[in-house]
Design brief:
Length: about 130
C-alpha cells in the first residue's frame, strides 16, 4: 500500500497540529486575559475617578461650610466687640454713679451733723 503520507510524517503532522492548536489557544487566552485586565483597570480607574470626584464635591461643600462659619464668626466677633464697648461704657458709668453716691452720702452725713448740732444748739438756748 502506498499512502500519501507515511507513518512518521503522520505523527509529525499530528504533533505539529497539536502544537499549533496549543499555540492558537495560548494566543486566544492571552488576548482574552489582557482584554479582561484592561477592562478591570479601566473600571478601577473610573471607580477611583468617581471616588475622587465625590471627595472633591465633599471637599467643596466643606469649604463652603467653613466659609459660612467664618463669616458667621466674623459677625459674632463684631457683635462681641460692640457689646464689650457697651460694657466698658456701662462700667465707667457705674463708677461715676458710685462716686456720685459717695459724694451724696458725704453731703447727707454733713447735713445730718449740722442738723444735729443745730438741734443741740436750739435746745440749749431755749
Amino acid at each position: 500500500m502506498n499512502y500519501i503520507v507515511g507513518v512518521n510524517e503522520f505523527w509529525f503532522y499530528i504533533v505539529l497540529s497539536a502544537l499549533a492548536g496549543i499555540l492558537v489557544t495560548w494566543f486566544y487566552f492571552k488576548a482574552r486575559i489582557e482584554a479582561e485586565v484592561n477592562t478591570k483597570e479601566r473600571q478601577l480607574r473610573e471607580g477611583h475617578k468617581k471616588q475622587l470626584l465625590e471627595l472633591q464635591a465633599e471637599l467643596q461643600l466643606s469649604n463652603e461650610q467653613v466659609a459660612t462659619l467664618t463669616s458667621e464668626n466674623q459677625n459674632l466677633l463684631g457683635k462681641v466687640n460692640s457689646l464689650a464697648a457697651k460694657c466698658d461704657a456701662l462700667v465707667s458709668e457705674v463708677e461715676q454713679y458710685e462716686l456720685r453716691h459717695k459724694q451724696i452720702e458725704f453731703e447727707v452725713a454733713t447735713v445730718q451733723k449740722y442738723y444735729k448740732d443745730a438741734r443741740i444748739d436750739t435746745t440749749i438756748t431755749i
